[in-house]
Every structure is written in C-alpha cells, then in structure tokens.
Amino acid sequence: MTWPFENDTRFIVKKLANRSFRSNKMRNIIATIAIALTTILFTSLFTLGIGVKESTEKANMILSGGDGHARLINMNEVEYDTISEHPLIQEIAYCRKLADSVDNEALSKQITLFQYYDDIGLQYLSIEPTSGHRPVAENEIIMDTNTLDLLGVPHEIGEEITLALTVHNQQITRNFVLSGWWERYPGVDYGTIVASESYMQVHTDELADTYALDHNDTGTITALIKFVNDDNIENTLETVLKDCGYSSDVFSDNYINAAVSPLYMSLRSSNNLGTSLALVCALLAFLLSGYLIIYNIFLISILRDLHFYGMLKTIGATGRQINAVVHKQAKQLSFIGIPVGLLIGFFIGKLLLPLIMANTAFSANVATVSPHPLIFVAAAIFAWITVQISTRKPARIAARVSPIEAMRYTDTSTNIRRKKRSHFGNPARGMAWANLERNKRRTALVILSLSVSIILTTMVFTFSHSVDPAKAIKNMIDSDFSIGQSKLFDDYNVSEESALSESYLSAVQQQQGFEIGGAEYGCKALYKSDTSKQDFNQNEDGSFSTHIYGLDSFPRSLLQLVDGEMDTEKLATGEYILEGAYVSTRGVLDEKSLNHSVGDRVELMYNGSIREFTVLGHVIANEANTYDWVGSCFFLPSDVYKAFTGNNYVMSYKFNVTDEMEPDVEAFLKDYTTNIEPTMTYKSKTTIMAGVSDIQNTIVAVGGTLSFIIGFIGVLNFANTILTSIFTRRRELAILQSIGMTNKQIRTMLCMEGCNYTFISGIASLPICFIVAYMLIRPICEKIWFLDFKMNLWPLLIILPLLFLIGLLIPYFTCRIITEQSVVERLKCGE
Predict the structure, then answer these.
(1) 526 by DSSP, 3-state: which?
(2) Contact 348/705 with Cβ under 8 angstroms?
C-alpha cells in the first residue's frame, strides 16, 4: 500500500534488503543457525509435550480398563437394557465376565480374564486382532500374544487350546480353537481371552447372574459409556441413573456401581497449575535464550552497518524504509532457519520421548507422537515472535539514526566515565577491561546469554543428582530380597493358596552369601472395636475386615515406629499388638489410617478364635510389609500369630545377603522362579533401584539435551560477539600496532577480553545457581518421594574452563588471520 502522492519504493527497498543480505554472509550464517536453534527448542518442547499427552492418554485408556466416560459394573441384563436406551448415551460397550478365573498352571504368574466383548467393547479396550478374526463360532477364542506364549501355543490360526476354568466355583475344562491374537499393550500385567457371542448364548444357564446372592461377579455385565459430550460427566452420569430408576448410593435398594472412568478423572486432574507453570517457564527460558542471541546478532550487524544506513538517510531514505530493509532481512533468515529448526526439533523430541515414557508408569514402547500440525504451527509462531521481538529494537536504531551520528559512531558508549585503573604494568589487561565497557549493553547481553546456559545446566544436574534410589525404595522393599508366590506379589491374594513353598525357602537359605532372614505370616481376619475410626469395609455385625501379619524377629526389626512403643517383651506376652499406619510408596502418611490411639482395645476374630489385644503402638504399613490395604492391618510376633490363628504356612520371606553375592543370588532367584517353581517369584532392591536410576538418566538425557542447545546458543552468541568485535576493530588494532604494540600484546589483549566475559558470567551465575537451587529445586525435592536435594556444582567446574578455552582460542586464531595483512593494508580498509 502507498499513500497519496508518495512514490512506490517497495522495489528499491526489496533490492536494498537483498543486496545488504548478500553482503552479510557471516551474519546470515550465524543468524540462521540461531533462529534454527531457537526453533529447535520450541519444536522439541511441543513435540515432547504433545507426545507425552498422546502416549499417556492412550496408555491410561487401556490401563484404566478401556475408553468411555463412565463405567457401570456388576449389572444384569435388565439393568443394562434399561440404561442403554437413555438419550444422553452416545455409545455403550457390552462386556461380560465368563469365568471366576483361568486356572491353567502355565498362567499362574498372571491374572487371566475370560470375557466376552461386543464390537464397541473390543474397540474401547484396543484388543482388535492384528492376525486372524474376531471369534464367531462357539469354540473360537482370541487372546493376547503374551498369554499364548505362556501357554506354549504357536501363533497360528486353528490351534487347539484347552482351558481350565472356574465358573461359579465349579471346575470346568473346555477345548477351544484359536481364531486370532493381538500384541498386549506395554504395562498391562494381565492376560485376556475373549470368547464369542455364540459361546455366551450356549452357556446361558451356567452364566446366570448370582451377584446379589453371593457377590460372585461371573455372568455380570460391565458397561463402558460415552455420553453425547464430556462436560460435567459426574452430573450426566447421575442424571442417567436417576432417569432410569437407579442410584449410585451404596445404601440404596436400586444401587448400581457406577463411576467416572479413571481416564477422564486423571486427564482432568493432570491439567493443573503446576504443569501449566512448568510449560510457561520452559517457553520463557527458550524465548529468552533465542532473544539474547538473535537480538545481539542484529544489533551488532546494525551497528557495524550504521555508516551505510546513515548514507541512505543522506540520500532521502525514511526511517520506515530502513526499518523495512532490516525486517525484510529478518524474514529471509526466518524462512531458512525456521523450517530447518522445525524438522530437526521434531526428530529430537521424538528421540527423547521414549526416554521420558520409559520412566513413567508405562513403557518406552508406548511412546508415540504423530507429526501433529499444532507442534509445527505453535513452534513456528513462537520462533517468529522471538525473531520479531529480537529485531525490533535494532531496526529502530537503524531507522532513527541521523547521518551525522552514523558517521561519528565508533562502537563506544558515550556515557563511559573513565576511571584510573591500576593493572600492575600490564596495559593489555587494562585495555581488555576497557573494551568490555565500550558497549555495556552488548557485554551485558553476552554475559546474560552465557549465564542462562550455565544456570540451566547446573539446575538440570542438581535435579538429576537429587534422585536418590535408596530413598525411593525404602517404602517399597526393606530388605535385599523378598520371596513369595506370584499370587501374593501379583494378585495380593493373602491366603493359604498363596503360601510360600518350603522347597523354595530351603533353596534360598542354602545360598552362598545368605546372612539373615525371617518369615512373614498373614491372613484375612475381622476385628471389633468401640474406638475405631475406620469408615469402610464394615460388616453388618459391626466388625471390620482387616489383615493380620505375624513376623519373625528379622522382618519385625525392620518395622518403623510412628508412635507408641515396640517393646519385644510386651508383644511376646500375647496381650499387645501393633497397628499399621498406611504410608504410600511416595512416603506420605495417611493420617486417616490411624484408626486407634495407643492403649485402645481391639478384638480380633479368626475362624472362631477371638482374642482381645491392646494397641501398643503404630508402625508404618507400606508396600514393603503389607498386601492389599483394606483400611487397617495389625502386626504380631510370629509365635503369637501362629498360636492365635493356628496357621503355620509362610506368606513371604525376607532376607539379606552379602554385597558381593547380590548379583549371584539375583541370578539364582530368576532362574529358580523361571525353570524350577514358576508359581514362585521374588522382589529385590536391585531391580527397583535400577528403575529409579533410569529416571536419573532420563533427567540428564532430556534436560541435558535442551541445556546443550541453550548452551550452544550462548556460546554462539559469545563467539559471534568476539569475532564481530575483532573484525570491526581491524583498523583500530592496526593503529595500535603502528604506535608500537606488538602482535603478542594484541593477541593477549583480545584473549583476555574473551576470558573476561567468561569470568564475569561465572561470578554472576554462581549466586543465582544457589538461589534457584534452594528456592525452586529444593522445595520440589521435598515433595517428590524419590528425590533428596543435593546441590551439584560440577557443571560449573566443567563449563567455565570450556568457555575460558573458547574465549582464548577464538581471539587467538582470529587475530592470526587479520594480522596476516600488513598494518598499512589494514589502515587503508574501511571503518
């Protein structure tokens, strides 16, 4: 657009911009790299963000039991048919349980479901066969490949499979034919076998719903529901139930067990302030890093070409036209740098995503990210905004400069107050410091750019160094090893059926390096108390369901006291008991789990045996010493436990070994539970600690990569500043040589300039590192269960010498290049 009576100068502006662009080859290369690096940061951040979101949403959907806004369980056909007709329901999946359990010995180490799903159910649970077809005939089944492998069945259509089933407590053996299979999703620790609708219809009588009578859920229906929209899912669910004549109130006669899907609950809770704040902080850090270098590059370029812009002013160019010339060049550089950065950044994010997902509750195999348009659009917008912000002020400087000011410009601040400096007879040192003061703004930008990279790298390594595997495992296992049956460790089935075999126990005790061990006994029981604060798992007679554990001296010595006392002599009398206070894996004590006060009386009941105990104290009950928390648990010495319950079977066994024998014992346990007694299993500190160490490696890999890019931007800014400063001062350096300054002195002065940048950056970064670490990283560590704050300054000791080296080498070799010209030649050149 041109104004009335104004010449159309767009062609000449474009021509000037193109010629100026071609004449600044070094500036163009450095600026393009800077824009590309900035775009890489934004693209990798958005790729990681969207990739984690996509991967966790899919994983959560499968691991939480399938897609759908809500889940209704233990329904009969009438209830299902009534609810499925409601107009607020868009889709409903029909899922029916066909057996209490699958009892093939080969499947003893995993829970295996025998189910029927309609087409929507198969879709919601992502179990569409990747080979073969869905079951149609009565004897056709499909299953996941892990279950096929455990059964030793080849992956071939038509293979015959015999299943041992328990249906309404009746043992049944049936023959089936394999019609298809699919790959089990990583993180799913149970097997699934799907039968046909024909099977369900043939065995209708066998699958009668008896849940109201005996709470056996075989034959019951689970419905996965998707509503017309996902606004106010809880209210919509309540409306549907009420309109159909049902209620979610457990005490109602028309009660239906209905709840919002954990998937949608977790998605809603994940959109919290902390996540948004972390994203904003990362964006601001990347924006700052990109701004510092792009701004500095263009500022140096403008100041170097200030004489050129002054001459344009003398021949009639307006400020707006000069501004247009600068922005035109920025656009040209962006059109090269941004696409390159988008492509590289996406692949960097895609490479880092599996590292992040491998240390979540999911597997690295679930890490998938599609080339979502939002990734590239958002990254390109932020990169473009960074370029526009960065070039705005340099363009204004070029537009506003007067011809006289341009001709007088000497790259020196006019506000410098000269101070007498004593440098002990070393003029090079004094001149090096003075040169930094010539343009304080540029010096400050370089120092800030270097400091940001130093601070971020130090914070990443402080955060990773704070990962404490020992702290992480203390609530998960409190001995070197714990052995038991897979039904106990995997299914939390505390009963005689989950007892530890004597042969396994004997084999462990005979291992070389065995130091000390002790048995844990356990069973389900009931208790009554007038003072209990427990508010669930209460039976009609007023008693509460609970677990009681008997401990030998070694596992009992591992208990951690919360309050009261742990007097061994008092416990041995059989009159006192320890109550468990639940502590999560993250080490958080649930205050509501303290059902009694020290000194309260509780009456335990087991198989007709009743005994009254006094609560002697509370001890931590966590994953290391309890199974299937039901609202309470109690601990007794093993002798008292066996005398009270009459049970002598061992639930699990904990033991320690010498440090040097840990790998050998681990290998023995792995071989024994695989080849000799497959129904047995084990837990160890080593395997749990290895998982936490992986988290540490991930923080270093992901944070280190992003810090490296930011650091590289800082170094690039540093190098560009030094190079530009030296080349623009060629004539000045020649004058110094002409009045007696030697090449060595000039090299010393320039090298000291580079080192001064590093020195000031290190001095400025050190206190900020401590402030950020103690005010930001330390509070985070106090809230995360596997972190124990440890300040780590090793990056400073590595980065600063590296920057000093760069500060020495760049001036040294640049000086060698420019001094190849004679003093006379350099005195004749421009500036």
Answers:
(1) strand
(2) yes
CA angle 72, 77, 81 (to 5 degrees): 75
**604 torsion bin: left (phi>0), alpha (psi -120 to 50), beta (else):** beta
Q: What is the identity of the amino acid at 398? A: A
Q: How confident is the model at residue 272, as a pLDDT?
A: 47
Q: How far apart are CA 716 and CA 297, in angstroms?
A: 10
> What percent of the chain lies above the pLDDT cut of 70?
80
Burial of 299 (0-12, 13-18, 19+ CB in 10 A): buried
Q: What would the two tokens of residue 76 be?
A: 């009969």
From the list 780, 789, 785, 787, the residue with the least C-alpha distance to 586 is 785
Separation between Cα atoms, residue 44 and residue 379, nearest integer Å: 9
Q: In terms of Cα–Cα distance, which of 515, 269, 298 is closest to 387?
A: 298
The CA-based angle 45-49-52, given to 5 degrees, is 135
DSSP state of 360: S
- For residue 784, the SS3 value is coil
Share of residues in the chain with pLDDT > 90 (%): 28
Which helix (H) or strand (E) segment holds residue 92: the answer is strand 89-97
> Helix, strand, or coil here: 742?
coil
Record the tokens describing residue 457, joined without a space.
């790298």
DSSP strand pairing (160-167 vs 609-621): unpaired
- Max mean pLDDT range (387-396, 501-510, 580-589): 501-510
| Beta bridge partners of residue 683, listed in sequence order | 482
Mean pLDDT of the chain: 80
Inter-residue contact 553 to 518 (CB < 8 Å): yes
566 SS3 class: coil
> Which sign, positive or negative, has the C-alpha torsion 699, 700, 705, 706?
positive
Question: What is the DSSP code string of 621-645?
Answer: E-TTT-SS--S-EEEEEHHHHHHHH
SS3 (DSSP) at 577: strand
Q: What angle do CA 182, 683, 109 make, to 5 degrees?
A: 35
Judged against a pLDDT cut of 60, whether residue 498 lies above it is answered with: yes
Long-range CB contacts (within 8 A, 24+) of 825-828: 826/730, 826/731, 826/733, 826/734, 827/731, 827/734, 827/735, 827/738
Is the whole model's pTM more than 0.70, yes or no?
Answer: no
